[in-house]
Each structure stands twice: as structure tokens, then as C-alpha cells.
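User: Second chain of the day. Same drill as before.
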Amino acid sequence: MLHSPAASQIYAFLFLPFRYFAVMKLLSLALFLILPLSAQVKRGERKSLLDNDPRVVYLTDLPDKQIELVIIKEAPVYSDVDGKQKLGTIQANQKVKIEAITDKAYKVRGKGTNDGIAGWVGPWAFASKDPQFVENLKKFYARQLEVNKIIAEKDVAMGMTTDEVTKSLGNPTKSTLRQTPDGQSGKWEFIEYEEQNNYTQVRDPVTGNVFRQLVSVTQIEKSKRVVEFTDGLVSAIEDAESRRRDHIRIIIPPMVFGW
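Assistant: Same format as last time:
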């Protein structure tokens, strides 16, 4: 059946609203599916910001520093390190793993009076077989804050461990290891190079024009830092002359836990 141009225009005019509503329905459905996903992303970003407080040492980032203590008294649990918002109460007589610490509170997960609970609890609620655990944790906390600062600055200090140096400077360019009856020692070299292009003048035999031609690339040592270890701890640091001599840092060795 043939349609006239006028009939086709009337047909398009009558069915245009239906097409419009169909397209809008599809767009609305797409937005409905996308918005919850974007909200989840924002919630994830907000969570990561809460877990990056510079005052906090996160033991979850230190697999070799796992600490378990016993809750001996019911204690309030707070959502923030400053103890401004109370979440509930944690029950006594249970062992919990410490996830993070400050000099005033520990972050734990455990059984609350009603259900599971996670947050910040005061040190007075904990006990350990080590009677000096509170003071030792304060010393560990102070050292780790200093180590975190050194790592953030891509620097190194005497008293740091090999793992801490790797986190700060990366893998060494060269390394040596020496084993003696007195212990183990080693040396790591961190060398930065810059490339220098070498050119020569070449004359085109056809046109007679002179141009530069790359003939080789030379690697020139830009900076060098040598870190020596004794029994796993930095015992000496050697730098290029351009680096300040008074810049060498010294920190206490890491704590040995006996909780």
C-alpha cells in the first residue's frame, strides 16, 4: 500500500510522542542503574579518606606487627580517634586483634553488648602478659610515625629495616650480601642515571647539507646512595658529595613484641 508524503508526515507526527517517551524511559532506566554505582564509588572514597589519618599507625599495613590483647573491662567504643562519637560498648573477657593505634587509643573489632562492633577503645580496657605493653606500644607508635614520615619523603635513616628501606627507596640497583660467624651484613646501592645523546656532524653526499646524526646514548650517573645493613638494620649510609652531611637520620631499632 502506497502512502502519500502528506500521510507520512501525519503518521510521523502522531507517533513522535510515543518515540520520545520510549527514549526518555530508556534514559531514566540507565540513570537509575548508574546512580547507585556512583554513590558506591563516593562511599568508597570517603572510607579511604577516613583510613588515612596521619596520626594513626595502621597495623593492617604491617603484616609482621600483629598484636592481640585481651579486653578485661567493658569499655565504650568510638568511631573516631578523638572519642567524640560513641558507637556502643565492647564486652570484657575476649581476645581482639589491634588494627590501628594512636598514643591514646586502639582500634579493634570484637563482640559488643548487642552485636559485633569495631572502633576505638582506650588502653585501660586491655591487658597483656607484658605489664609494660602500654609504654611499649607508645614507643612503637612514635617510631612508626617517624618511619612513615621518612618513607613519605623517599629518604632513609640508620636503624631502619630492609623492608622499610625498600618501601622508601624501592629495589636497589646493586646489592651484596656477606655472612660471617658474627652475623650477616650487606650493601645496597641506589643509583640514578640520566641519558646523554651523542651526535656527530654528517654531510649529505647528494645535497651537501650538513645535519646532526645520533650515534650513541651514554648513561651518566646522576646520584648514588649506598645503604649498609648489619643483621637486617641500616648501619651506615653513604651519599654523593652533593647531599648534605647533616641530613643523615638515626632512629631507634624496631620493637620486639611479646604480648
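Residues 13-50 form one domain.

User: Great, on to the next one.
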